[in-house]
């Protein structure tokens, strides 16, 4: 890509963002669109147009985002969202502090360097303006390289300082949330797995109750044994489907009374294959019959499930959250594979089918999943490499010669050069997250938020190894294949010297991500179109309408790895080509603004883990930093700088820093500190409500009573704490 193509890419991306921002200002003012642009406020009972959100000023949302506080984010979107903004702020701080030295120091050093033949071009010879501002413009063995060595150390120590401050801050956020006087059911609950077989004549429920009453006689409340729910859940899902369908056809019938005859038109349907054949019946009567038929069947299956399908896992409830916190981090059995205890997640986050999986089954599943992930990463490098190599115009002309007349048009050529490789890569990566989430759940992980953290980690390493390293190495192999063929022994030096050649690709990739990506995020064009199509053609009831505009969450499993990829790219090229640093600052700064708006108005968190994502974020930032340090060590070697060994301590310091942070902070993110849990509550907890909040929907009776669960929930003293 030449300089004009890069400027075209940047200008076009910026123009798209401006258009989308004005579109957002116009569309968000229309009352019919408020459920798309302000669902978070609506669900919390707030005025969607509070604080002048209906203004014509296209920059009003920026003022609102900047004026919001961290307390506002915690109150509206939870601690996890606030922690995500700590991540964005930390990375932005690292890049700003790094740029304050890199830009004024390294750019003049590189620009005034004299080199006859540029062997280390950052743009494969086309983007010469960037070459003159990069490390590639500095002569081999030159004393000017000392400036780049100092800069490498500066970036590293800025990162250490920022990460340490951020870890302390997130720890304070977590502590403040956990010591809240509000009653949260999960704080009075522990999850028990790997329960050994009960003695003869003893039920699983009696076994669990006896075990924990003996250890915690004063604060043990009751237990809920996990059951095999597949059959009862199938019946419940079928019943709920009929109820939704009945509400829909009744709404259609009511509409027909207003539109036509006063008596209306009774809806009918055929009960054969796909409703295309069989007997014609009155739909309302048919659905009522089905509901009446399934209701007693569900109740009977609930009793059978609770009595006969108890498994080797349970939820145990305590009347004191200090006791629950203490139990969750205590060793209850001599053998690691029995009576495994941990904090209980929120009830809605439990993956019920994973809870009974045994200790050794989980270990085996984890090993198998890691092998599959490794193979996925390895084999994905092949298509990623081909995308890098073949989405250039020259290669497209060779592979698809009939496109030459179109590609040779100046306007089309410029646009394709600017966007084609980046768009191909973004689309290709969009197919992966669901597969990785499936693999994470297959490990036997007990909660959805834990599975999301695991997916985020897999996706990050995939992105770095395939996108960053894959594109770099893939482009290098194809561009230097003839040289390697002539001299196979030169492969190492050729690969090392060609690493900076993809700087402009990644520069454009970052620019495309922040302008177009965040423009679409702010404008919510796709969700708006989908909502209005559903509202116009599909929604007949209030429940269907609410489901059509129900907002999602921030999607940490893909959003954080995407941000991490950008951070990795910017860090690794920050010293080689410092002009990439401002683009990184813009990416994270614009992301902070746009997502602050979305967090306060649009997205509703699906879970709350009180910042448990942070240790994983911290580890991946350090992984990106170590990759940057290793990259710089290799590149200084290519430059034949004899003091290159001075960079060896950096990765060692990074590992030591990671070790210290883990030992100092990580334990608090695994479990709740007792000094935090001992804070007084606003009111005594209603333990019956705490208990029933964990009942799976398929086992919850419409009118819950203890008799319904008598086989699984024997009499336990319930005279404890009630609100």
Automatic annotation (TrEMBL):
<protein>
    <recommendedName>
        <fullName>CSC1-like protein ERD4</fullName>
    </recommendedName>
</protein>
<feature type="transmembrane region" description="Helical">
    <location>
        <begin position="6"/>
        <end position="27"/>
    </location>
</feature>
<keyword id="KW-0813">Transport</keyword>
<dbReference type="GO" id="GO:0005227">
    <property type="term" value="F:calcium-activated cation channel activity"/>
</dbReference>
<dbReference type="InterPro" id="IPR045122">
    <property type="entry name" value="Csc1-like"/>
</dbReference>
<feature type="domain" description="CSC1/OSCA1-like 7TM region">
    <location>
        <begin position="365"/>
        <end position="636"/>
    </location>
</feature>
<dbReference type="InterPro" id="IPR032880">
    <property type="entry name" value="CSC1/OSCA1-like_N"/>
</dbReference>
<dbReference type="InterPro" id="IPR027815">
    <property type="entry name" value="CSC1/OSCA1-like_cyt"/>
</dbReference>
<feature type="transmembrane region" description="Helical">
    <location>
        <begin position="459"/>
        <end position="481"/>
    </location>
</feature>
<feature type="transmembrane region" description="Helical">
    <location>
        <begin position="419"/>
        <end position="439"/>
    </location>
</feature>
<feature type="transmembrane region" description="Helical">
    <location>
        <begin position="643"/>
        <end position="660"/>
    </location>
</feature>
<dbReference type="GO" id="GO:0005886">
    <property type="term" value="C:plasma membrane"/>
</dbReference>
<dbReference type="Pfam" id="PF02714">
    <property type="entry name" value="RSN1_7TM"/>
</dbReference>
<feature type="transmembrane region" description="Helical">
    <location>
        <begin position="501"/>
        <end position="530"/>
    </location>
</feature>
<keyword id="KW-0812">Transmembrane</keyword>
<keyword id="KW-0106">Calcium</keyword>
<feature type="transmembrane region" description="Helical">
    <location>
        <begin position="615"/>
        <end position="636"/>
    </location>
</feature>
<feature type="domain" description="CSC1/OSCA1-like cytosolic">
    <location>
        <begin position="187"/>
        <end position="354"/>
    </location>
</feature>
<comment type="similarity">
    <text>Belongs to the CSC1 (TC 1.A.17) family.</text>
</comment>
<feature type="transmembrane region" description="Helical">
    <location>
        <begin position="565"/>
        <end position="595"/>
    </location>
</feature>
<keyword id="KW-0472">Membrane</keyword>
<feature type="transmembrane region" description="Helical">
    <location>
        <begin position="145"/>
        <end position="164"/>
    </location>
</feature>
<keyword id="KW-0406">Ion transport</keyword>
<dbReference type="Pfam" id="PF14703">
    <property type="entry name" value="PHM7_cyt"/>
</dbReference>
<feature type="transmembrane region" description="Helical">
    <location>
        <begin position="82"/>
        <end position="107"/>
    </location>
</feature>
<feature type="domain" description="CSC1/OSCA1-like N-terminal transmembrane">
    <location>
        <begin position="5"/>
        <end position="165"/>
    </location>
</feature>
<dbReference type="InterPro" id="IPR003864">
    <property type="entry name" value="CSC1/OSCA1-like_7TM"/>
</dbReference>
<keyword id="KW-1133">Transmembrane helix</keyword>
<dbReference type="Pfam" id="PF13967">
    <property type="entry name" value="RSN1_TM"/>
</dbReference>
<feature type="transmembrane region" description="Helical">
    <location>
        <begin position="367"/>
        <end position="390"/>
    </location>
</feature>
<keyword id="KW-0407">Ion channel</keyword>
């Amino acid at each position: 890509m030449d300089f004009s193509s890069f400027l075209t890419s940047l200008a076009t991306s910026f123009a798209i963002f401006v258009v989308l921002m004005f579109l957002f200002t116009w569309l968000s003012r229309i009352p019919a669109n408020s459920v798309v642009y302000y669902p978070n406020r609506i669900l919390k009972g707030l005025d969607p147009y509070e604080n002048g959100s209906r203004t014509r000023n296209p920059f009003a949302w920026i003022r609102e985002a900047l004026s919001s506080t961290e307390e506002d984010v915690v109150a509206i979107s939870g601690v996890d969202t606030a922690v995500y903004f700590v991540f964005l702020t930390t990375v932005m701080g690292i890049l700003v502090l790094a740029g304050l030295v890199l830009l004024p120091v390294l750019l003049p050093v590189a620009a005034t360097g004299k080199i006859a033949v540029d062997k280390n071009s950052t743009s494969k010879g086309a983007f010469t303006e960037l070459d003159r501002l990069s490390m590639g413009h500095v002569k081999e063995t030159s004393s000017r390289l000392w400036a780049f060595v100092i800069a490498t150390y500066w970036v590293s120590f800025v990162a250490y300082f920022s990460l340490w401050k951020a870890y302390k801050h997130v720890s304070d956020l977590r502590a403040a949330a956990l010591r809240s006087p509000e009653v949260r059911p999960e704080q009075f609950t522990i999850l028990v797995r790997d329960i050994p077989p009960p003695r003869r004549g003893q039920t699983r429920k009696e076994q669990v109750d006896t075990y924990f009453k003996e250890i915690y006689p004063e604060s043990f409340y009751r237990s809920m044994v996990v059951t095999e729910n597949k059959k009862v859940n199938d019946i419940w899902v079928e019943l709920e489907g009929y109820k939704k369908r009945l509400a829909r056809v009744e709404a259609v019938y009511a509409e027909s009374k207003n539109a036509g005859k006063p008596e209306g038109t009774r809806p009918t349907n055929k009960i054969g294959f796909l409703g295309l054949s069989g007997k014609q019946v009155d739909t309302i009567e048919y659905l009522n019959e089905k509901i009446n038929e399934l209701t007693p069947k569900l109740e009977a299956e609930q009793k059978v499930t609770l009595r006969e399908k108890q498994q080797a896992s349970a939820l145990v409830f305590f009347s004191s959250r200090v006791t629950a916190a203490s139990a969750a981090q205590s060793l209850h059995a001599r053998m690691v594979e029995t009576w495994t205890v941990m904090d209980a997640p929120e009830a809605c986050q439990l993956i019920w089918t994973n809870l009974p999986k045994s200790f050794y089954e989980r270990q085996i599943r984890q090993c198998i999943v890691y092998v599959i992930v490794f193979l996925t990463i390895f084999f994905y490098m092949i298509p990623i490499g081909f995308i890098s190599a073949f989405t250039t115009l020259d290669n497209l002309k060779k592979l698809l010669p009939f496109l030459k007349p179109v590609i040779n048009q100046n306007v089309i050529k410029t646009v394709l050069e600017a966007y084609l490789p980046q768009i191909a890569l973004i689309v290709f990566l969009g197919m992966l997250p669901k597969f990785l989430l499936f693999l994470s759940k297959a490990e036997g992980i007990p909660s959805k938020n834990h599975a999301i953290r695991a997916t985020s980690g897999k996706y990050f390493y995939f992105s770095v190894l395939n996108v960053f390293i894959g594109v770099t190495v893939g482009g290098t192999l194809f561009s230097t294949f003839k040289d390697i063929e002539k001299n196979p022994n030169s492969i190492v030096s050729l690969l090392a010297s060609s690493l900076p050649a993809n700087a402009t690709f990644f520069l454009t990739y970052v620019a495309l991500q922040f302008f177009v990506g965040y423009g679409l995020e702010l404008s919510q064009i796709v969700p708006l179109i989908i909502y209005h199509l559903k509202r116009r053609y599909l929604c007949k009831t209030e429940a269907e309408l609410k489901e059509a505009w129900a907002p999602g969450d921030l999607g940490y499993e893909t959003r954080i790895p995407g941000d991490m990829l950008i951070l990795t790219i910017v860090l690794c090229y920050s010293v080689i080509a410092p002009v990439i640093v401002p683009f990184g600052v813009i990416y994270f700064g614009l992301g902070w603004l746009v997502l602050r708006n979305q967090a306060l108005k649009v997205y509703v968190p699906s879970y709350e883990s009180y910042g448990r994502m942070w240790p994983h974020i911290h580890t991946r930032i350090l992984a990106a930093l170590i990759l940057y340090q290793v990259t710089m060590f290799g590149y200084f070697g290519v430059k034949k700088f004899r003091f290159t060994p001075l960079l060896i301590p950096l990765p060692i310091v990074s590992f030591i820093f990671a070790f210290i942070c883990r030992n100092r902070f990580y334990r608090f993110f695994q479990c709740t500190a007792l000094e935090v849990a001992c804070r007084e509550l606003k009111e005594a907890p209603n333990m019956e409500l705490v208990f029933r909040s964990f009942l799976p929907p398929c086992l919850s009776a419409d009118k819950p009573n203890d008799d319904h669960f008598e086989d699984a929930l024997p009499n336990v003293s319930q005279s404890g704490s009630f609100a």
